């Protein structure tokens, strides 16, 4: 076996969310070389890896490849949703070889975002100043369900502080540009996940950090967040005994600019990098296959 010899071929079996994407970006965007991505199913016998997006199987096993698998071929199970939002399609154990998700225990780990060190040579660092703010707390939400814990937090918190709300549920759809403008014009942004699960920390956190709003998070524990970002980069709902206490703290930071600015100290050392779905997922799959030729099987997918 000589992995360096011929390029690794990864077949995109189903276009994620039925959307096509450029297949020749691995080297230019991610510096990953020796990869060929294809969506042409004629290559199923030749592919080293087959990338399958869980959601697009859509409860229908006939959407999976129907071949006698070449011995070296690996099927990659790709999923970006939390366990609460993952359909337990039966019959998928002992079928896939490699897992790809945001979780730290996935074979191929593609978090929604991460912090990367800022370039060296920044000795004369000028502290970051967030852009002008004309709103205290904002929330943009499309999936609003009363049974979600985040909705209960929102309702509680809004008794004590005005929350500027946007999104489909509030009949205020926002464009991509508006999304950015809204977040950067707010002092605090509610980065509330739809469900609380280990490592499930999405663009809701990373976009707020990137755009200069201080994230107020609901999701996994503070400890879990701190495996991804510094503890002084966010406010966690669990830090407070009540939403009233949280509101009080937000007003305190509102009045005390020096305290507020402490939430941006991470910017001296890091910048935000958000994942480029699904191109990055496909390129990282290829890189993984190239480096891991050993036999492996996912015997218990949902665990
Ligand atoms: C991939 O998983 C299948 C199904 O369990 C297995 O038969 C095959 O040997 C595995 N291939 C590799 C390369 O690990």
UniProtKB/TrEMBL annotation:
EC top class, as a word: transferase
UniProt GO cellular component terms: Golgi cisterna membrane
InterPro entries: Glyco_tran_10_C (IPR055270), Glyco_tran_10_N (IPR031481), Glyco_trans_10 (IPR001503), GT10-like_C_sf (IPR038577)
Transmembrane segments: none
Membrane topology designation: Single-pass type II membrane protein
Catalytic activity, as annotated: a neolactoside nLc4Cer + GDP-beta-L-fucose = a neolactoside III(3)-alpha-Fuc-nLc4Cer + GDP + H(+); an alpha-Neu5Ac-(2->3)-beta-D-Gal-(1->4)-beta-D-GlcNAc-(1->3)-beta-D-Gal-(1->4)-beta-D-GlcNAc derivative + GDP-beta-L-fucose = an alpha-Neu5Ac-(2->3)-beta-D-Gal-(1->4)-beta-D-GlcNAc-(1->3)-beta-D-Gal-(1->4)-[alpha-L-Fuc-(1->3)]-beta-D-GlcNAc derivative + GDP + H(+); a beta-D-galactosyl-(1->4)-N-acetyl-beta-D-glucosaminyl derivative + GDP-beta-L-fucose = a beta-D-galactosyl-(1->4)-[alpha-L-fucosyl-(1->3)]-N-acetyl-beta-D-glucosaminyl derivative + GDP + H(+); an N-acetyl-alpha-neuraminyl-(2->3)-beta-D-galactosyl-(1->4)-N-acetyl-beta-D-glucosaminyl derivative + GDP-beta-L-fucose = an alpha-Neu5Ac-(2->3)-beta-D-Gal-(1->4)-[alpha-L-Fuc-(1->3)]-beta-D-GlcNAc derivative + GDP + H(+)
Coiled-coil portions: none
Localisation: Golgi apparatus, Golgi stack membrane; Golgi apparatus, trans-Golgi network membrane
Pathway assigned to this chain's UniProt record: Glycolipid biosynthesis; Protein modification; protein glycosylation
Stretches assigned to the Fucosyltransferase N-terminal domain: 7-113
Signal peptide: 1-20
A Pfam family of this chain: Glyco_transf_10
Molecular-function GO term, any one: 4-galactosyl-N-acetylglucosaminide 3-alpha-L-fucosyltransferase activity
Record-listed E.C. numbers: 2.4.1.-
Gene Ontology biological process terms, A to Z: lipid metabolic process
SUPFAM superfamilies given in the database record: UDP-Glycosyltransferase/glycogen phosphorylase (SSF53756)
Ranges of residues in domain Fucosyltransferase C-terminal: 131-301
Keyword field: Disulfide bond, Glycoprotein, Glycosyltransferase, Golgi apparatus, Lipid metabolism, Membrane, Signal, Signal-anchor, Transferase, Transmembrane, Transmembrane helix
Family membership: Belongs to the glycosyltransferase 10 family.
Oligomer and partners: Homodimer.
Protein name: Fucosyltransferase
Lineage of producing organism: Eukaryota, Metazoa, Chordata, Craniata, Vertebrata
